[in-house]
Design goal:
The structure holds two protein chains of two kinds. Helices cover 48% and strands 11% of the residues of chain A. Chain A is mainly α. In chain A, the strands form two sheets. Chain A has a two-stranded parallel ribbon. In chain A, strands 3-4 form a two-stranded antiparallel sheet. The longest helix of chain A has 18 residues. Chain B is mainly beta. Chain B is globular and about 45 Å long. Classes of the chains: A mainly alpha, B mainly beta. The interface between A and B is large, with 83 and 50 residues. β3 of chain A pairs antiparallel with β12 of chain B, so a sheet runs across the interface.
């Protein structure tokens, strides 16, 4: 879907860059990219650099950058369309846990249509678009990293370093510390959970999974409303 | 920043953290914090952690240290931080190569 949008907007001077946040590297991210056969730059961020540099805390997240290299919208939830999860019929034969996950997913703010319309407006009108933030407006929207979030970042960096160097067990306490210190960072959680269990269900390593944590914090908070 | 000891080179510290040691101190963007440039071009991360407010984690079992960022905004101005990352078709790709074009970065994950 992003590719179709890219083809539509490219004549107006636009490029899409997708970045996969995946500590396990191309072995995990690659099959999705291969299936999509993208024409745009498709990058791998196995150290979650976008979290450190831009403050990305969940995916998918979109960041707008103008021709002069200036950010005009900070990281926010970005979908290329209304997520199919919101409307999908759930077959009767689906496993109970998956059913609960799909039902919870319906409560997420995952309708990308307003975002895509805003993107089109910006590509067409540039700085005249009301969706392009001024430097002052942008500064007001930028997330402030608390001391706990900074300590979480140190733990996560150590965790991903250990994971990538084959020391998965040693990585776990640092992943857990990052989760505890920065509970708002879903990327930290989802990355760690997925390494142990693709379904991100509770297990011996992580006693709570995606469903439990989303319910605890409220599905409406998982993806904050974009374009605010 | 990951290190096997708290003693690191200034160049390594600058490369990994984006801070630059100048005569007036350690500087990043518009912010400078007094920090004497050490003799011999080596830094003690424990002192850096104290002076710059960057958290330092030590894992003695694996023999590694991790220095986290300082509290405050991840970005201090509107200039989009540049980055270079591996590209699917091979080689590395730099965001700066797209200067002159509007860019949408979409961060995603297989999880």
């Amino acid at each position: 879907m992003w590719q179709e949008l890219r083809e539509e907007l490219s004549p107006g001077g636009f490029e899409l860059v997708t970045v996969a946040l995946e500590v396990r590297g191309w072995q995990e991210a690659g099959r999705w990219i291969e299936a999509a056969a993208p024409g745009h730059p498709s990058l791998l961020d196995d150290q979650h650099l976008l979290t450190r540099l831009y403050g990305v805390v969940n995916v998918p997240a979109g960041i707008w950058i103008d021709e002069g290299g200036r950010m005009v919208r900070p990281p926010e939830p970005a979908f290329p369309r209304r997520s199919p999860l919101l409307d999908a019929e759930i077959p009767e034969t689906v496993a109970p846990r998956l059913r609960e996950v799909l039902l919870e997913s319906r409560k997420l703010n995952a309708d990308g249509r307003p975002y895509v319309d805003a993107l089109r407006d910006w590509v067409r009108r540039g700085s005249e678009s009301s969706f392009a933030l001024s430097p002052e407006e942008l500064r007001g929207r930028l997330a402030q990293r608390s001391p706990d979030a900074c300590l979480a970042a140190a733990h996560f960096e150590l965790a991903q370093h250990l994971q990538r160097s084959g020391r998965s067990e040693a990585a776990v306490p640092h992943f857990k510390a990052a989760h505890r210190l920065a509970p708002e960072n879903w990327a930290y959680k989802r990355q760690a959970w997925s390494i142990v269990d693709r379904t991100q269900s509770p297990n011996d390593v992580y006693p709570t999974g995606w469903l439990e944590e989303v319910r605890a914090s409220g599905a409406e908070n998982y993806y904050p409303e974009p374009l605010r | 920043m990951i290190a096997s000891s708290p003693d690191v080179s200034v160049a390594e510290f600058e490369r990994h953290t984006g801070w630059e040691l100048k005569p007036e101190g350690a500087c990043r963007g518009d912010v400078c914090i007094p920090l004497a440039r050490p003799a011999g071009d080596r830094l003690d991360l424990r002192e850096v952690s104290r002076k710059l407010g960057m958290p330092l984690v030590e894992d003695r079992e694996v023999g590694l240290w991790a220095l986290g960022p300082a509290a405050g905004p991840a970005i201090t101005d509107a200039k989009a931080p540049d980055f270079t990352l591996p590209e699917w078709r091979g080689g590395d790709f730099s965001l700066a190569s797209l200067r002159g074009t509007k860019v949408l970065i979409v961060a995603w994950a297989p999880w």
